[in-house]
Design brief:
The chain has 450 residues and is an alpha/beta fold. It contains 17 helices and 14 strands. Strand 12, helix 13 and strand 13 form a beta-alpha-beta unit. The structure holds zinc ion. Zinc ion binds next to loops.
């Protein structure tokens, strides 16, 4: 290898992270090395056994109050798809293992989770009359404990809130970890009010400046209704300004246009080879009008809009909306863009839409991609084509990890972008090998100064 390929930018940017969840995940049960439903159950049982037992209750009301304030069993990282028998544990067994506390065990992609009956009813998701496709049911119409997308988030947000002190400590933990990986700029891709509050505290205390990390936050769309109130609230969040705290800025808003590949909910132009009968081409989560409104709202506030779009249909929908809204160059970012139709590749450069991609996911997703869209593998992360169409690495095409979905080690994305597969695979055996880029180009996509 020549000297050129050894080049690394002096300052690295992590363009897609979830800072608070990354820190919090370090204190959750890690299911990433489980290989079966039985192993998941064992791991959850161990965590449950580590918590104090429930007292005896005088009334149902007393029991409910206890449940609401007590810690839940929280887990993350499950990769069901990698199991020989790719099934989550059934609800009866989850109930048997965690009978009296809340439970949420996330899949690695944070788009689905399993829970127990108590948590389902606590989150108002247990009713037989709810005909929500995100509440997965068995043949008899009974909930299986598996929740997807908004139903998973409804369950998650019904757990006892963690304190501001705890959130701040988790945020620090995450930023320390990201700084250790060499990042000086981190984009937080779905900050809610509590996340911003924790980031602001890290900034106010001068701690971010000491660490040398600056954070650019993209505000969660679900909370946009409260944007106006933020101007006056106690910790003086000012949009597009510095939150009154050095080292943190709100630079954008975030929306979700589709789901994920893992849940077969990423919205595709063609049906999945192994899709779900309820949504063979995945799920569209926002209408064309809603995407356009989000772009306009952000542009009017001087913000960028970051749109989560994994499938090629979702990517096209965002490009169409950016075109129709005449969004200024650089004001729209597409997050993930895991599949891009050939016809849409040149539109990024034409419209000035930024591609924010996470090649490191290829290292984990190769088998899933081969099962899900065997006829479209050539359209997976066409990074070579995007650069050749005029996108400048580090400015128009950005690399990130989506941590805590996968670890935030930049070397993983360098490997995936140059080898299109894991290190023990030949380039020719990778996914769309013709889309490989050079090591210098890959590092440039992490360049904070490009
Ligand atoms: Zn993300």
């Amino acid at each position: 290898m020549g000297e050129r390929s050894k080049w690394r930018p002096a300052r690295l940017r992590e363009a897609h992270a979830h800072i608070h969840p990354h820190g919090r995940s370090k204190s959750m049960v890690d299911l990433s090395d489980c290989r079966s439903a039985a192993e998941i159950l064992n791991r959850l049982a161990e965590a449950y056994a580590g918590l104090p037992p429930a007292p005896s209750f005088g009334s149902e009301e007393e029991r409910r109050r206890w449940f609401k304030s007590e810690p839940w069993v929280l887990a993350h990282g499950a990769r069901i798809e990698s199991f020989e028998d790719p099934e989550w544990p059934p609800l009866e067994e989850l109930d048997a293992i965690v009978p009296d506390r809340g439970l949420a065990a996330w899949s690695f992609d944070h788009h689905e989770l399993v829970t127990n009956s108590l948590s389902l009813s606590h989150a108002h998701l247990a009713s037989d009359t709810l005909r929500d496709p995100c509440i997965v049911r068995d043949a008899d119409g009974k909930p299986t404990g598996l929740l997807q997308e908004h139903a998973a988030h409804q369950l998650w947000s019904s757990r006892p809130e963690s304190s501001h002190e705890r959130a701040t400590a988790d945020t620090r933990l995450a930023i320390e970890d990201l700084a250790r990986h060499g990042f000086v700029e981190v984009h937080d891709l779905k900050s809610d009010v509590a996340d911003l509050h924790a980031l602001a505290t890290c900034g106010e205390e001068g701690w971010l400046r000491e660490t040398g990390v600056s954070v650019k936050a993209f505000y969660a769309h679900a909370d946009w209704g409260s944007l106006d109130e933020l101007e006056d609230n106690a910790w003086q969040i000012k949009l597009s300004k510095d939150l009154g705290a050095p080292g943190v800025r709100v630079v954008g808003g975030k929306i979700f246009v589709d789901g994920t590949l893992n849940g077969r909910t990423a919205w595709m132009l063609h049906p999945y080879a192994d899709g779900r009968p309820e949504h063979p081409e995945g799920m569209r989560l926002l209408s064309q009008e809603e995407i356009a409104n989000a772009i306009e709202a952000c542009v009017a506030s001087g913000l960028q809009l970051a749109a989560h779009a994994i499938g090629d249909a979702a990517v096209r929908a965002v490009l169409d909306a950016a075109e129709r809204a005449r969004a200024p160059r650089g004001s729209v970012r597409i997050e993930h863009a895991e599949l891009i139709d050939e016809a849409d590749v040149p539109r990024f450069a034409e419209l000035g839409v930024i591609a924010s991609v996470q090649p490191c996911h290829l290292l984990y997703d190769i088998e899933a991609l081969r099962r899900a869209c065997p006829d479209r593998l050539d359209r997976v992360l066409p990074i070579r084509e995007l650069i050749d169409s005029g996108l400048k690495p580090g400015r128009d095409i950005l690399f990130g990890s989506d941590t805590p979905i996968v670890r935030p080690d930049p070397e993983d994305s360098i490997l995936a972008a140059t080898n299109r597969g894991r290190s023990d695979m030949a380039l020719a055996d990778g996914i769309a090998p013709s889309q490989a880029i050079s090591e210098a180009e890959a590092w440039a996509c992490f360049d904070a100064d490009a």
